[in-house]
Amino acid sequence: MKYVDEFRDPELTAHLLHELKAASTRPFRVMEVCGTHTMAIFRSGLRALLLPEIELISGPGCPVCVTSASHIDAFLQMAELPETRLAIFGDLFRVPGSKGATLAHAHAQGAKIDIVYSSMDGLELARRNPAEMVVFPGIGFETTSPGLAATIMAARQQNIDNFAVFSTHKTMLPPLMALLGDPRLRIDGLLCPGHVSSIIGAAAYQPLAEQNHLACVIGGFEPTDILQALILMAKQINEGRAEVENGYTRAVTWEGNGRARALVATVFKPVDMEWRGLGMIEGSGLAIREEYAGFDAQSRLSIPLPESKEPPGCLCGQILKGITAPPACPLFGKGCTPATPIGPCMVSSEGTCAAYFTYGNYSR
Ligand code: SF4
Q: In testing the pocket of ligand 1, which one of 332, 352, 362 has its CB within 8 Å of the most ligand atoms?
């Protein structure tokens, strides 16, 4: 496939691996912020080739995994309302709420739940089902919030008033700032997510690099992208530099996408947001502005937010903070597998537990 195969070329990958080993004059620890990176590193086999010189730990960048149990409980409450249909991303289907129930259970008991690929699909569902309220649970980061803002604006323009969004949307920099203050983390560099960075721009990481003396390198998601980013990081670490470098220039600029950010600012305002495992983080969420309140499911349907309770024994919170790896969880591969997930990190296609189990030779 053009524009993909070039970045998976085995010879180029081997060459870059050789270059990375030469550049790595001492072992170092890297947090890959994003679940897409975690999965890509496991799936491509890079993780096994990089160890032990480069220790990779996963961060809080899996949108389904960081959705709090109380938000899942709220989605379950909405699914039980009459004349209501939920339009969800597929990964949400099996994520347990505080009492272990999932949207899959609700669906089996008759709730109307459709799996969609975008918020615009949810709007189309509302158009085709005028007698129902279609609610789209908004999860994700800067990558998906511009599309969600555009969908809400389209709903207004097209006078579709049976469509609403329950926003749990989050922004990536506040949790990273919070996590980097934890002395248990001890990382030398951040592998920054290419897709989020295409919106916020490379410049957004400058405070993280400066305040934490951290090498911040933006990387794409193919094997050669990841290796190229790690080579830049190894060189910084060896030279004692702590800078923002862009290893994904075909998608990310220094300034990012100002038009997408303006769209988000038109529809959303920053609020404090609860993250699974990380708790409430100031200014890390996006709520719908008063001007668009007619599309805000939380206020329109008066959905209360119960207190979050994690599944007993699940260590997702520690895994999302980067201070524990999945094999340390007593339930990993025993009670908890991708077929029988207990926590969201085993459910999501970007979850760290799912990546370890699927590609880490633990399933055998
Ligand atoms: S293995 Fe399962 S129970 Fe343990 S942390 Fe991961 S998702 Fe939670």
A: 332
Q: List b or e across 157-178, with b for residues whose CB sees 16 or more CB atoms inside 10 angstroms.
A: eeebebbbbbbbbbbbbbbbbb
- Buried b / exposed e over 110-122, threshold 16 CB at 10 Å, is ebbbeebeebbeb
Ligand 1: residues with CB < 6 A are 314-316, 319, 326, 329, 331-332, 336, 342-343, 345-346, 353
Under a CB-based contact definition with an 8 Å cutoff, are residues 150 and 180 in contact? no
Q: What mean pLDDT comes out for the span 304-321?
A: 90
CA-nearest residue for atom 1, ligand 1, is 332
pLDDT of res. 181? 85
Between the CA of 336 and the centroid of ligand 1 the distance, in Å, is 6
Candidate from 104-118, 221-235, 303-317 with smallest mean pLDDT: 303-317
* Count helices and strands in the chain by DSSP H and E runs: 16, 11
Q: Please, what are the domains in the chain?
A: 69-171+257-300 (3.40.50.11740)
Compute the average pLDDT of residues 238-261: 97
The end-to-end CA distance of the chain, in Å, is 32
Tell me the CA distances in angstroms from 153 to 11, 117, 129, 165, 266, one per residue in order: 47, 18, 19, 12, 9
Chain segment 174-220, per-residue pLDDT in tens: 999 999 988 888 899 999 999 999 999 999 999 999 999 999 999 99
Q: CB neighbours of 93 closer than 8 A, spacing ≥ 6? A: 102, 103, 104, 107, 113, 115
Residues 6+ apart with CB under 8 A from 119: 87, 136, 138, 144, 147, 148, 151, 165
Specify the pairing of strand 189-193 against strand 133-138.
unpaired
Q: If we measure between CA atoms, which residue out of 303, 322, 316, 314 comes closest to residue 276? A: 316
> Token pair of 274, please?
């609860």
Q: Tell me, what DSSP letter sits at residue 59?
A: E
CA distance 218 to 245: 6
Q: 254 in helix, strand or coil?
A: coil
